[in-house]
Amino acid sequence: MKKKVVLTVTLVLFSLLSFGMQSGEYMFKLLNEEAATETVTYKQVSTDVVNFESTTDLHFQMQQAVYKTKGQIKENLIVDYQVTMLYNNNETVIHCTLSDDILTYTINDVSKEIPIEGPLLLLDNNLAWTWQLVYNLYHENGYETINVFVPQLLLKDFTDILKLEFQKTTQTEEDTNVFFSYSGQSGMLKADKNDQVFQLLMGGTQMVKTK
After folding, report:
1. Which of 193, 201, 196, 198 is nearest to 209 (CA)?
2. 142 closest CA partner among 76, 67, 60, 45
3. Cα angle at 40 between 102 and 74, to 5 degrees?
4. What are the mean pLDDT values of the chain's consecutive 10-residue runs (211 residues total)?
5. Cα–Cα distance list, 88 to 6, 66, 68, 93 (Å)
């Protein structure tokens, strides 16, 4: 019985490590000025499903906002996602779910469906931790191109599906650099020996993992 318990614990830990997601803290810089800080935590609930929660504090120049997310990840894709945005004493909640080839979103108590083609990643503005999923979809799942939906842009009635295309990879003794193009911009992800993304460079934006 004891061996069975140890084996179960080992399998769960292996699944979490191979999933490539580790709780941590991040910082965003815009034009070399600190713009936001973020914390994220994960909890494995089954062999292929992980729950997440994150809090992002945006404080760039005159912009002040807080973003709170929660939901579930399966096979490096977010299948359930809720973001609560606190801005100018107003609260807005957006909820998205992925099921087969349908994206369902709810905002201001109005729900709609969008037909999609996979793989589709929910990649929100002003969030850092989701870039680990971008890396995983390339490194672990082997995708050359992924479709992207930005939930926060629903506030502007923008429902287009964007493309993120991986271009090349370079390797050093310490790091892996993944180059990509996304929404008309070029970017680079840097990951360590454990395949943990610790830096994003794209335009005037820089994200670093601080803990």
Report:
1. 198
2. 76
3. 30
4. 41 45 92 93 93 95 92 96 94 94 93 94 94 96 96 94 97 95 95 95 93 91
5. 50, 10, 15, 14
Burial of 44 (0-12, 13-18, 19+ CB in 10 A): middle
Q: What is the DSSP letter of 175?
A: -
Closest-CA residue to 11 (of 40, 48, 60, 55): 48
CA angle 190–137–22, rounded 5-degree value: 60
Amino acid at position 20, single letter: G
How far apart (Å, rounded) are the C-alpha atoms in residues 31 and 98? 35
pTM of the entire structure? Answer: 0.89
Tokens of 34: 């600190």
* DSSP summary character for residue 130: H
* Long-range contacts, 6-14 (Cβ 8 Å, 24+): 11/47, 12/44, 12/47
